[in-house]
Specification:
Blueprint lengths: L5 H16 L2 E6 L5 H14 L1 E5 L2 H10 L12 E6 L10 H14 L4 E7 L2 E3 L1 H8 L4 H40 L6 H90 L1
Antiparallel strand pairs: 1-3, 1-4, 2-3, 4-5
Helix pairs in contact: 1-3, 2-4, 4-5
Length: 274
């Protein structure tokens, strides 16, 4: 007898691994499904967090025999097996969603026949798989469980919150009935002291505000004084310039007068000589 086919050995090992790791396994007969139907079914399984694989019955028998799985009677006709796996978002698949995906598809396409399966190592009949599909998914059950736990806790928290409030009301009534307690005086003194401190802080704030205003006014006055000095300097410079201009004009007039006199003297001298 020759060595076993390596490809078949690898397939048997693959089936064994999937049987061992899957939480739920559903065996189906896919006779009559076309390529498009198989693609739609595989996509529904992927969204549900599972995978849909077609294997030869002889190879599945070898894998099941080595794992002591009693599924021989389900390996009749063309068989495809659904395994729980991982959803597209990375979360683990749910046996309920796998069963629901297969059941919903079989209602629309009668060529898919659910033959049976396994859940946590135990065998499931077709009716049990259909019943499993009607259970709420795990995420929904967890949400309901969390809500059921949260409601009593919220009620308990409300009760705890109400106890000190009622106790405070009762204590207040008791104090009023007894005419007050010695503790009221220190409390009043503390409140008075706090009020005085608040008044002092307010007064200090007002003083600081007044000081800021005075400082601002002083700065404005200094700026105005500086501007006035600058204006005086400019006025003085203008007066000096006017004086210098007047002196220059006087000098110019004097020189002109001297020139005119010299000219007149020259002309008179010429007349005398002639």
């Amino acid at each position: 007898m020759g060595d076993p086919n390596p490809e078949k050995v690898a397939i048997v090992a693959e089936v064994q691994e999937k049987f061992s790791n899957a939480d739920a396994v559903v065996l189906t007969e896919y006779r009559g499904l076309n390529v498009t139907d198989m693609a739609v079914l595989r996509e529904a399984m992927r969204e549900a967090g599972g995978e849909y694989k077609v294997y030869k019955n002889t190879l599945v028998r070898f894998a099941a025999k080595e794992l002591n799985l009693e599924i021989e009677e389900l390996l009749v006709g063309p068989t495809a097996i659904a395994f729980t796996g991982t959803r597209p978002d990375g979360s683990p698949g749910d046996p309920v969603t796998i069963a629901k995906a297969l059941t919903d598809f079989s209602k629309k396409n009668e060529n898919l026949v659910i033959k049976g399966g396994m859940l946590d190592g135990g065998l499931l009949t077709t009716d049990e798989i259909i019943a499993l599909s009607k259970i709420a998914p795990r995420d929904e059950l967890l949400a309901r469980l969390a809500g059921g736990i949260a409601a009593p806790l919220q009620q308990f928290a409300s009760l705890l919150n109400a106890v000190p409030q009622k106790f405070a009301f009762a204590l207040s009534a008791l104090i009023e009935a007894s005419g007050g307690t010695p503790e009221e005086k220190p409390v009043a003194e503390e409140e008075t002291a706090e009020a005085e401190v608040a008044e002092e802080e307010t007064a200090e704030a007002e003083v600081a505000e007044v000081a800021e205003e005075e400082t601002a006014e002083a700065e404005v006055a200094e700026e105005e004084t500086a501007e006035a000095e600058v204006a005086e300097e400019e006025t003085a410079e203008a007066e000096v310039a006017e004086e210098e201009t007047a002196e220059a004009e006087e000098v110019e007039d004097s020189e002109k007068e001297s020139t005119d006199n010299e000219k007149i003297d020259g002309e008179a001298k010429e007349n005398e000589e002639s």
